[in-house]
Write a structure and sequence with these properties.
The complex is a heterodimer. Chain A is about 0% helix and about 50% strand. By secondary structure, chain A is an all-beta fold. In chain A, β7 and β8 form a beta hairpin. The chains are: A mainly beta, B mainly beta.
């Protein structure tokens, strides 16, 4: 069964550094998402991406964040200048039809020191 | 915007008992309600979902019910097994928008 994949599984970085988290969505899916989950808390929406553009973003997704689909398979989340509070598990998800049937990747645990 | 409340935060049952987790939502435009199971350190896994044009959906030991008027939906697990132990999240979304808004999660512990 096809799955969303993410790399790396764990990223440790210094405050102020840039990080890029990578995702490969399920191949026939058209909608892509990033969510984050701070340890022990609920999953929070960051951004949705459809037809090569951002379709919706939350207030968490400020100017320090950006997303890109650099080729036909990858979907990336960039954080330009990381803060301590960016430490979280970041999940990529994809779906065929918007909110319906979103499948999540295994996550990247980001630790900002 | 949408707000999803989930109760209880923790639920302990004996193997073989039933478990019920309840969620309420605020936005009447929401019309899609999935449930995700998350084991420790793993990804959220979609286990069942329901759209607002139906009131109940079953898949083996799990079922979801929806009351649109009251804006609440519930997950029912029958004949619980230790491997059902996990955190369960409800969420709300809709065909008019793409994001899912998650509840705060319920930690289910099934004791043998």
């Amino acid at each position: 069964e096809p799955e969303v994949t993410q790399t790396p599984s764990h990223q440790v970085t210094q405050m102020g550094q840039e990080v890029i988290l990578r995702c490969v969505p399920i191949s026939n899916h058209l909608y892509f998402y990033w969510y984050r989950q701070i340890l022990g808390q609920k999953v929070e929406f960051l951004v949705s991406f459809y037809n090569n553009e951002i379709s919706e973003k939350s207030e968490i997704f400020d100017d320090q964040f950006s997303v890109e689909r650099p080729d036909g398979s990858n979907f990336t989340l960039k954080i330009r200048s990381t803060k301590l509070e960016d430490s979280a598990m970041y999940f990529c998800a994809s779906s065929e039809a918007g909110a319906l049937g979103q499948f999540f990747g295994p996550g990247t645990r980001l630790t900002v020191l | 915007g949408e707000n999803v409340e989930q109760h209880p935060s923790t639920l302990s049952v004996q193997e073989g008992d039933s478990a019920v987790i309840k969620c309420t939502y605020s936005d009447s435009a929401s019309n899609y309600f999935p449930w995700y199971k998350q084991e420790l350190g793993k990804r959220p896994q979609l286990i069942i979902d329901i759209r607002s044009n139906v009131g109940e959906k079953k898949d083996q030991r799990i079922a979801v019910t929806l009351n649109k008027t009251a804006k609440h939906f519930s997950l029912h697990i029958t004949e619980t097994q230790p491997e059902d132990s996990a955190v369960y999240f409800c969420a709300a979304g809709g065909t008019g928008f793409q994001k899912l808004v998650f509840g705060t999660g319920t930690r289910l512990l099934v004791s043998p």
